[in-house]
Design a protein that fits this description.
- The chain contains 3 helices and 5 strands.
- With 126 residues, the chain is of the alpha+beta class.
- It has a single domain, classed as 6-pyruvoyl tetrahydropterin synthase/QueD (Tetrahydropterin Synthase, Chain A).
Length: 126
């Protein structure tokens, strides 16, 4: 099994509701988000790729157009946690990106708010 990944970044703000009084994430704040897209394939396409990294560029454009320098509370229909963002982006990738790939299956999207913390949404086995 071959695996590849591509990393993207964007800057955005959010506020999380339902937290205990005084919790720092209950205040408006921002992050430089890192989004990692993970793909796998049993074989390779010429010239020896799981997929061409350039074929993943539409995700970068989507992040720039829809999320960069935005208030995530206004963009997502759910509470804008890293977990929810990872699930949303996984869904977007499977709907819009996966059909365009010659090879490789999207298996996970990981979202980091900081260098030391991340949330991941992974394909479930069927």
């Amino acid at each position: 099994m071959f695996s590849i990944g591509k990393r993207f970044t964007f800057d955005a703000a959010h506020v999380l509701h339902g937290l205990p009084a005084g919790h720092k994430c209950g205040r408006l704040h921002g992050h430089t988000y890192t989004v990692e897209l993970h793909l796998q394939a049993d074989g390779l396409v010429d010239p020896g790729f799981v997929t061409d990294f350039a074929d993943l560029a539409p995700l970068g454009r989507y992040l720039d157009e829809q999320f960069d320098h935005r208030l995530l509370n206004d963009v997502l229909a759910v509470e804008p946690t890293s977990e929810a963002l990872a699930a949303h982006l996984f869904g977007w990738c499977t709907q819009h990106l996966a059909p365009t790939l010659a090879c490789g299956q999207i298996v996970a999207v990981r979202v980091s708010e900081t260098p030391s913390s991340w949330a991941e949404y992974r394909q479930t086995s069927t």
